[in-house]
Amino acid sequence: MNEWQRELMKVAGDMEESKERVKKRVLQQQVIKAKKPILFTLLTAIVTFCLAGFVLVQLLNKETKQSSNVFNETQLTHFEKIIRINWGKQDEGFYTKEAFERYKNVVAIYYYAKSLGLHYSEEELKAVRNEHYEDLVRIQKVPEYADLFKEEGVEKYFKKYLEPLLPMYTAKKKLETFYLEKYPTFPKGIVQEIAAQDALRYFDKHFVEQAKTFEEQNGIKNYYSSSQGIIYLGTVIKIEVESNAFLFVEGVIPKDLENLSQEQIVKKYPKATWYPVLDDLPVKQGDYVRIESNSNQSIDENGIVTHYGVLNNVEISEPTVTTKLNIQNEQEVMQFFRKTEWQPAGDMGTPPDYSFMLEGVRIDVWLSYGQSLYLNKVGYGTVHLSQKRSEELKKIVGIK
């Protein structure tokens, strides 16, 4: 089945019943054919041909119009209905904004899959249709979803709200399969997030105006700012899986790894994390990078824990600005930090000015306003020392 036929199927639906009706009609016509004049039969054929052509033109025009509209208000309403049920009482603006974000993710995956040449078959579309219809039948029995079908029932609700989304859900399955092959060593959950992230990156690059127009037409405002992820500074120590992924060690500069084998590095830095290489932001082994990530997952196989993350952004940094301190009075430094309350790690934006090792853990130091210090203890978090405490630490570790 070619692309045109698939697109027609999306509009016209399953034609099997229609085929049976046409077959019966033809057989009936054959029985009475001898009683009809030739001119009448010819006129009937001409009218039938013209009518079929008219219907096809209408269907194609409808499909062209639908494909030119990236978003549809009816489907936005569907997502908003679900959000209202799942989130309970919120500000009105929240429901529409959250619904649009969910809807946009689905649309982005569809167009990204098309850009990669991933096409679905009639059988795959039908399978997804059955799956989503059965899901809808199941949730109608859940009390929280009862109001969803009160006015229209499952059949009409499915046809109105979900059928137009089926090509997008089918494309999502194709894209996830494609990405599982691209990142064979990554866990499925992380791979799905990577695919969705790449799809949004593609969509924001090519469809930003369509999204903006739809938001304006529907009064969708940015009522909240989504998390941009956590910032980490560290070194790329390995590229593999056909250059699709890199192993990253937080808090380590390239010089720290010069005399260590990969096995020694992984043993010394057990929180090393695998990230996908972004197509437009490649990195190479030995790069000191600043990465942004909003999700990670760990897999324990036979006592060996491997970490994986989703990459929002990556930038090459310059590690030579960091002065490595050689601590001789480790006990005195440990005493200084004994009552320190480390806070969740924040984004410092630049490589540290100083760094030193304490009990095998790296501590990075940034000079702040008024000569106070910001510190980050890898795996523990950050702390902003007062000016008095900063002066004490400078003397102890030898910062001038």
Keywords:
400 residues; 18% strand; alpha+beta; elongated; disordered N terminus; 49% helix
Describe the structure.
The protein is an alpha+beta fold. It has 13 helices and ten strands. A five-stranded mixed beta barrel has the order 1-2-3-5-4. A hairpin with a 4-residue loop joins strand 1 and strand 2. Helix 5 crosses helix 8, helix 5 crosses helix 9 and helix 8 packs across helix 9. The longest helix has 31 residues. The radius of gyration is 30 Å and the shape is elongated. The protein starts with a helix and ends with a helix.
Helix and strand content put the structural class at alpha+beta
Mean pLDDT: 78
Strand arrangement, largest sheet? 1-2-3-5-4
Q: What Rg do the Cα atoms give?
A: 30 Å
Span of the ends, CA to CA: 74 Å
Strand percentage: 15-25%
In DSSP terms (H or I, runs of 4 or more residues), the helix count works out at 13
Largest sheet: 5 strands, mixed, barrel
What ranges have pLDDT less than 50 throughout 5 or more consecutive residues? 1-68
Count of DSSP strands: 10
Task: Using the alpha-carbon principal axes, give the shape.
Answer: elongated
The share of residues in helices is 40-55%
